Here is the input.
Amino acid sequence: MRTNLETQQRLLEAAGEIFATRGFRAATVREICQRAGANIAAVNYHFGDKEGLYFAVLKSCSEAALKKYPPTLGLKPTATGEERLLAFVRSLLLRIFDEGRPSWHSKLIAHEMAEPTKALAALIDKVYAPALKQLEMIVRDLASRPASVAVVRQCLFSILGQCLYFQNSRPAIQHIHPEQGFAPADLERLAKHITQFSLAGIRQATK
Amino acid sequence: MRTNLETQQRLLEAAGEIFATRGFRAATVREICQRAGANIAAVNYHFGDKEGLYFAVLKSCSEAALKKYPPTLGLKPTATGEERLLAFVRSLLLRIFDEGRPSWHSKLIAHEMAEPTKALAALIDKVYAPALKQLEMIVRDLASRPASVAVVRQCLFSILGQCLYFQNSRPAIQHIHPEQGFAPADLERLAKHITQFSLAGIRQATK
DNA sequence: CGCATTTTCAAACATATGTTTGGAACGATT
DNA sequence: AATCGTTCCAAACATATGTTTGAAAATGCG
Here is the structure.
């Protein structure tokens, strides 16, 4: 009962990376098994079929991402709205630019958006919607005065859009601005910019 | 010499729609030919291979999008920076939410970002980079004072990100906010929000 | 019309890919 | 050591897909 779990684990690892880079459909079971050092039949034996493996990968990566960058963000209850916004933005950027599972998670979601599978709805409910809800609290807190649902929502879109841009347009960014780095210091600068930019935007939208 | 062009045209139409929804790899020649009412061999006869058809589609869709929403935006030379920003944002949103070729173009780019093909670099140089350059002029004009390259760039990212969010996360948006409409009036409201939000952000970043 | 070129078509081909299968190897338990 | 359930594996299978082919149909032209 050890090699069993080890093989499953290796498959999850290999599949996570390959699904993240190629998407569900373009990823091949053969490539996954080869990288995992497993037989071609291993996927069907351990996960039923390719789709079962994919769902398991999504589950595994979601949990890994939420564990490495927990929604609480390690903030004190006394943190100001601005601090919480910065923490939210920073954690999102860190997840996007991380190497390994957390970034797989972002890439998997990106692929789902471009070419949805049956897993999309559940993934949104489990990961995407809670993050939005959390951001909504922050924005309401930062608003100059009680804001309408529509205005708050537009601010959410503006903030999320600024962060996810680096997920969804990275090839273009790197092609046009090859000198732009994304080391931790760069990300911190970026997070601060997005936070300040959004703070001004929120105040403008709720003044 | 008539049916010839007609078949090529039908193939381009059908392929545009299918490549846009499924991406290059997941789209099948058979489905494209069926929708175009052409024989399976038509793609290879007229475009060499599937990739040739894909390149032709990209070219066709780029031209169609730039023709329907030209970079000049129909603005007077006397337009203020704010008007030009609004026009830029609006045209981008219109292209994203359009039905037909202009939206195919956006979707094709989105697929390229998620799973790049050999066409990506040329596509960026031809379409993406010029738009960025144009936006850069607007931002520099709106800055409170001469801004560094880095600050301007971050503002570009912020604005583009807000717009492209609706391209790259639409499934999530529609799932979480099913009541959110995207009729012309909604898009106008959205464009105004993004413009005002960004205006405040730019001023904050360049103060 | 007669002929050459172009275009269309049904079928076949070659390859890739998810899945199944029957048996072998393995590990735990008695 | 013997047995039983689990896991692994090489091979085969079924299907999907891009491409090719050779002939038929259509088209242009004198």
Notes: Residues 3-26 of chain A form the longest helix (24 residues). The mean pLDDT of chain A is 92. The two ends of chain A are 62 Å apart (CA to CA). Residues 1, 3-4, 7, 38-42, 45-46 of chain A lie near DNA strand D (CB under 10 Å from a C1').
